[in-house]
């Protein structure tokens, strides 16, 4: 037995470039070459970029991100639901929603940043969700074809359809990526459309007018009027949604829904909105 233990240890010696750190029961592994693996509070394993400060730093340090919004998003879903996500980053929400809807459901995630989309795809494979999750490395918009997309290694969570040079700081890089309209895809029976697109929400929804006709669809949208004004008038977007029968609720830090008057959307402070034709919490 001792001989076998010596032999096994020679084969299973950790790579020198893999650094393991563990806080409580939540391990973190630096894998080298700007790649790491962390365990979330949910128990999922997620590939992250340790140089990315806007989201990944929180995932590494705390094992979660926006817990009040996460709680609401997951409460809107049940096994078998279909989800469309625009702005998936490294897949934090993606794996959580995939677990929630299960193999009888479906999650389609769009992430235009090729590095982040690659990390998300690896995490989907690692957690065993490939059969019902699709990562699409494209931007969702109101046009089809090639668009400029600003990315940053340090502030990856701020990636967006191009509006100006160095918008994300000194390491801003502008890429050419493919863009698609959600209405051109088969996304029938979508229960939840989650959008976190750094101001491109008006463009995405303009390319999803048919999708929005689905009577029971729920939207969860990052609402930042400063970012959106570079593409469209946020109040006009709110008016269009209201004309389609939608109502609005702000997600509070207590994971509650606070009604919002459509007339106030043009001046509303940054938040995440639930947009639906009836209060979705009344249905659950």
Written description of the protein model:
This protein is of the alpha/beta class. It has a single domain (65-283), classed as Rossmann fold (3-Layer(aba) Sandwich), CATH 3.40.50.150. The chain is 24% helix and 28% strand. It has helices at residues 2-11, 56-62, 67-75, 92-101, 114-126, 201-206, 225-228, 234-243; strands at residues 19-23, 26-32, 35-39, 45-48, 82-86, 106-110, 133-136, 139-140, 145-151, 160-161, 173-180, 192-195, 218-223, 247-251, 257-260, 271-276. It has an 8-stranded mixed beta sheet with strand order 7-6-5-12-13-16-14-15. Strand 1 (19-23) and strand 2 form a beta hairpin. The longest helix has 13 residues, at 114-126. The protein is globular.
Task: Provide a quick synopsis of the model.
The chain contains eight helices and 16 strands. With about 280 residues, it is α/β, with parallel strands linked by helices. Mean pLDDT is about 90; it is low at about 1-15.
Set out the fold topology.
Blueprint: H1 2-11, E1 19-23, E2 26-32, E3 35-39, E4 45-48, H2 56-62, H3 67-75, E5 82-86, H4 92-101, E6 106-110, H5 114-126, E7 133-136, E8 139-140, E9 145-151, E10 160-161, E11 173-180, E12 192-195, H6 201-206, E13 218-223, H7 225-228, H8 234-243, E14 247-251, E15 257-260, E16 271-276
Parallel strand pairs: 5-6, 5-12, 6-7, 8-11, 12-13
Antiparallel strand pairs: 1-2, 2-3, 3-4, 9-10, 9-11, 13-16, 14-15, 14-16
What is the number of beta strands? 16
For the record, the count of structural domains works out to 1
Element-by-element helix/strand order: HEEEEHHEHEHEEEEEEHEHHEEE
Strand fraction equals 25-35%
What is the CA-atom radius of gyration, in angstroms?
20 Å
